[in-house]
């Protein structure tokens, strides 16, 4: 049976290099079904963002979520993917009705940037930022790791209407290894084709690329689509607008309607709901211990 919707880690045992492989099918199709993707190019870019975020989420330990956002003022204004530590994924795209550019840099516009955020339950959020100065996401992330981690890192990404796949290799920090080892592994990985990434299972692909290397392959980690939106979270977002803004909205309409941008779920708050939000917020503030 073909391996789909899973992440696999691997390690070059004789060299200081680690790797990961991911291929998404059902999770990718479910994640994108609520998005308006104006053409195959935007669809492919969003799928690559999702695959890349899954790969990067496996490089660090955290309990929470990793979010990759590519923001710009071009024909595409946002590409976003979120992956939890349990490999639950969701994504969104925002663009004009017509996107003619095929280069990531051109479609996002001048001054666009990639923001990588890790929100962990027991730590302050971490954020890394890099400008989008390359034509594809793999190139942008290569620059990101060179600047932020000072680690040689390469990604190969591909996505279409049915699948999104990725391959990742990175030198291990503080490992003493020969530059020639990294260059050889990188050169071998660089021979991978989009068709191989979409059709070969992980074992087959690694054998094709690295059959002369000693590679340890770890068990698959399942990936699935799941949106973590909730009425409580949407209520918190509304509270951030402030009481005066909420009252102003309710003067114009009977209720406030909010749609989740990731899954399309609809939330409705009438005047009584908003009043309860405000009362509960005041009560929670009063119950909080005073800090000196």
UniProtKB/TrEMBL annotation:
Gene3D superfamilies: helix hairpin bin, Hsp33 domain, HSP33 redox switch-like
Superkingdom of origin organism: Bacteria
NCBIfam families per the UniProt record, alphabetical: PRK00114.1
Keyword Transmembrane in annotation: no
CDD domains named in the record: Hsp33
InterPro entries from the UniProt entry: Heat_shock_Hsp33, Heat_shock_Hsp33_C, Heat_shock_Hsp33_N, Hsp33_helix_hairpin_bin_dom_sf
Keyword Transmembrane attributed: no
SUPFAM superfamilies: Hsp33 domain (SSF64397), HSP33 redox switch-like (SSF118352)
Entry-linked PANTHER family: 33 KDA CHAPERONIN
Name listed for the protein in its UniProt record: Hsp33 family molecular chaperone HslO
Keywords: Chaperone, Cytoplasm, Disulfide bond, Redox-active center, Zinc
